[in-house]
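Protocol step 4 of 6: structure prediction from sequence.
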Amino acid sequence: MGAEQSVSVVTGGVVPAHYGDPLMRVYIINADDLIVTREAPAEPGENEIVVASLDELRAARLSGKRLLALWNGLPGVDRLSKVGNREALVDRLWSALQTLPDAQRARASKQAEVIGLLRRPEGVTVDEVRAVTGWQPHTVRGVFSGALKKKRGLAVVAAKEERGRVYRIAEAGA
């Protein structure tokens, strides 16, 4: 399942000024979420794509797998197993995105929350992850080694510190 789950995303550049229109919906696509908002970030985060139009979605360098994952993650759509006509899928995806309600960002999955904790400069301990997720210690360690390291290919590293064993996601090239 590991290779099937890989997602191609592009680091975005500076968001153009026309995104400042408060009535315009902006879609932020990253490795874990699709966020619908009316407030575009000043600069996209690492590995985020910000789109506000069909042309921008067409220009975004999204892999076929990522397009399928976005489509299949939308509520009420018929799941697809193949991209087929890429342009038609992008058009259908844009139409479906426009029907999504404006909502507060839904709570991220527990795995996404754990990844966020691991990316903090101070890292995270097993007990801190337990407090957020309600998981048992063996589950936390299993997520670190199985879901994050093996399946997602993240470099989770541990270091003994004053507050105990602290886990972090190592920066690329570190």
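Step 5 (inspection) to follow. Strands lie at 26-29, 34-37, 49-51, 156-161, 164-169.
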